[in-house]
Design brief:
Blueprint: H1 8-24, E1 28-32, E2 56-60, H2 67-79, E3 83-88, H3 89-92, H4 97-103, E4 107-109, H5 115-126, E5 130-133, H6 151-159, E6 163-169, H7 183-186, E7 190-195, H8 212-231, H9 255-265
Parallel strand pairs: 1-7, 2-5, 2-6, 3-4, 3-5
Antiparallel strand pairs: 6-7
Helix pairs in contact: 5-6
């Protein structure tokens, strides 16, 4: 017999807020690769059944602050799947975000070594949950997929679950580093989401093997998804536009310039002003 998850009601509340905001601004979401997502929930309106052995890591690109939300809505509308995000301790300590993070069943990555959060995420994966990870571990200001941390690959390999790659393009126009939310830009803005073919556990390294080659492969898969999304994006690239990558004639930094900017910025502060999603290294 199907039973709702403990935080099902609150999760649905958050989803309704997201759907309402999308409808309010008439944001156009175009999706490809839906065949790679799990089957719809068996009961109309019910959340996805959490069955041991049927979990997955959902790896999402990170060009803006709302990419995760569009990926989350796509998974919910398709399969009523609740995503569990890895959230930094700074976000969990936030007076407003903290209670919501707890109520939604997210996984908190503490300051310092994230071994506890890693173990908790693997346990949730084995239990059948979907763990969402932004493997770039920071916004890519070049708007190309930057170097990825190995956490997504290692967690999926240890839990023996697939990785579902989700590439989001266009959401960074709404809000990203150096560009706050603009209702004008958000109005009827197009957003492209491409779901790539899942990476099966058989293609992931054993626990005692180097996870970096598989992580680099995941980076290429995510970038291929971005390339697919930009190829048929309904807004033509405007020369010099800040949200267009340099290789398409836009004004964003090149990848080499992005690396220099990241190095000059140095390690990010613990906590910080904005709640952040995390990758457990």
């Amino acid at each position: 017999m199907w039973r709702p998850q403990p935080n099902d009601r609150f999760y649905r509340f958050l989803v309704r807020i997201g759907l309402a905001l999308r409808a309010l601004f008439r944001v156009r979401v175009m999706i490809t690769g839906q065949e790679h997502l799990p089957a719809p929930a068996p009961l109309r309106g019910a959340s996805r059944r959490v069955v041991p052995g049927e979990g997955a890591v959902v790896a999402i690109t990170h060009f803006g602050y709302l990419d995760f939300a569009f990926a989350e809505l796509v998974l919910w509308e398709r399969a009523r799947a609740q995503l569990r995000f890895l959230i930094t301790q700074g976000a969990a300590d936030h007076w407003l975000a903290g209670p919501a993070i707890s109520a939604a069943g997210q996984v908190v990555v503490p300051y310092g070594p994230g071994s506890g959060a890693y173990a908790a995420a693997v346990a949730k994966l084995r239990a059948g949950e979907y763990i969402a990870v932004l493997p770039e571990a920071g916004v890519s200001r070049s708007f190309t997929v930057r170097e990825c941390k190995t956490g997504a690959v290692r967690m999926a390999a240890e839990a023996n679950v697939p990785i579902i790659p989700v590439s989001v393009w266009g959401a960074h126009q709404l809000m990203t580093r150096g560009h706050g939310f603009s209702p004008l830009r958000a109005w009827r803005a197009p957003v492209r989401v491409h779901v790539g073919k899942p990476v099966p556990p058989a293609d992931l390294p054993a626990p005692d093997q180097d996870a970096r080659p598989a992580t680099e492969k995941l980076r290429r898969i995510l970038q291929d998804g971005i390339d697919t999304a930009t190829a048929d994006f309904p807004l033509a690239p405007v020369p010099g536009a800040w949200w267009i990558p340099a290789h398409l004639g836009g004004g964003a930094p090149t990848d080499a310039e992005r690396q220099q900017l990241d190095q000059a910025e140095g390690p990010r502060r613990k906590g910080g002003r904005k709640p952040k999603l995390a990758d457990p290294q």
